[in-house]
């Protein structure tokens, strides 16, 4: 006997709505990681982060096809199947799985074939129908057959009720239980039979199904069964579990509570609107995956990360949106000691600013209200005088600390009164100019509180995201309301950490440095405190110069951070009418860091120290400006830098590592090639982050460097297609949110720049013939570019434009909804642009 086998179960297409909890259907046809009950990795509360009320062993679909009975899973004999007791009850022989989020297509192969289309509605701009707590399964076979679905009751002492064509599972639990006040429904479209039992599997019931095509038992509440006979078998799984609580017990609930009162409402709504929900989700799928001019594998890669938008999000009853930085995957069987093999945030890390910077475009065009909500929430984190951490970060700076010590020597009562302490610190900050007011917090922590303020890239990143969301949505009120926060964010870092207009990093500025200096004192009990050691040996008493590459120490002028800063000043000038001297800052930046090929990783003008690493994200600030129709760098420097990143950072069978020395030296766990003498370089420089790679590939495509971009993307594709990881990219945890930047590949191929304020759409396609999806905050559809003509078929929304520009081409005429226009372009169906 010869078997061919490969493992492909690390991830699958995620089913559920935005912020509803989810399940995964993987390549064996089984259903994993049930977090629809506000439990497991989805939860904030530590006591339920490893609790799962259903597993992949608790749900199945079976079929009686003629005289053959099969469990529709490519798994072991299970659910009562046995080659000894019930040799006629078998798992399926093989299974073909195609994952194209939001759909999973499965073809179960035996002596006959059963096809399954599984999905949850995903419709750009339609938040209600994209956040439904529902999964829909459509099975098809070539002749009438008997289907059965079985599921274990997720309530230990629950009940199962028959409601016409629906099984309803519920139970009595305490008010702290995440299932409290909720229920689970399974509905079959048509006229199904329903059954339930206390013990399963039972040979009697399987024999009955074998002979009659149904199960008739109605005794017990441990397992529920539903089925019918047809060529097409449609199952709707719906849930309603409103008891989503933070760690301190505060209820945030779910957005779906605004529309439904129980799971029956959910499944009935899904059935009543099934034609619309499926049609629009199909339209989105087909526009995304059915391409011309773009290879299928690239479209697959772009769509793969949509799973994270379902898997890792909260959407509260009041409409607040949160996304986990990384997903602490506790349901997976493969763990290393206490931690999942993918690692991740044990405690809460939501809406992480430096990570969101890479994927905010995706949110802005797919669900603009979520992008705006993320920034509005983050804006409330701006460090203020009434936040006790203001004192902490003010006194972390030596300029303020020294004056504080002088004052306390003269008046020892200052620290004993919070009012007097705050007033003293404010006076000192005003005197020195080192006032941290306005700094943006890193992420949202436990109980929806804001985390630390120790990263100097967060402030310009907030400004860049504000600029992008404002300009693409054209929401002037949003832009104006957040402008003071954006401006103060940049003013804050320019007041405290700058060198002649450039953001300046000073120690402590990387976690690896912390570990090294702490190691000197690890055996001395009095110094058994990392914070104390760092505060004594650094310049700042605590982190104020870390960036998104936080385990990678840099000092002075960092090419990545400083270009973000200059770009943010440019945005404030353009959208806020400010007068920052961007030209002088850019000139100094280039004189310090440009080496003829790329910008050095960092240079410290005070010590003279330098690190010549080529950093993969060094041009992110320029890329943001390009998305908005602006630029800082000349094209020659941009293209040289991008080519250098591909030349030095792209490694065969690895991908684009974050940092690379031109001489090929790899510093992992050794010293860097710089004078800081850090003995054990962390993995951050030496590892590929797919979220960065997607950004880089997009930048390359915008610059018409298609071959180089494909090389980058192919490494990502090959790396994550192994073992079924394709829909789950890692960084600090699984389903890491940065790779949602994959969507940037689409506007890059279109050469798309959109000004929603002035209503101008610019296209500069990277290839001559192209057909793909186009998504903007106001409308979405399919665009076809070919031989002097660009056609936009609008699927949803309304285009209201002042101008369409095909870069470098002369527009001959524009037709909107069948009418030639010579002014405003308004269309709900189609826009045709002819050019030469």
UniProtKB/TrEMBL annotation:
Domain named Glycosyl-hydrolase family 116 catalytic region: residues: 544-744
Residue stretches spanning the membrane: none
Annotated GO biological process: carbohydrate metabolic process
GO terms, molecular function: beta-glucosidase activity
Family matches, as Pfam families: DUF608, Glyco_hydr_116N
Domain spans labelled Glycosyl-hydrolase family 116 N-terminal: 12-146
PANTHER family, per database record: BILE ACID BETA-GLUCOSIDASE-RELATED (PTHR12654), NON-LYSOSOMAL GLUCOSYLCERAMIDASE (PTHR12654:SF0)
Protein's UniProt name: Beta-glucosidase
Organism: Sulfurisphaera ohwakuensis
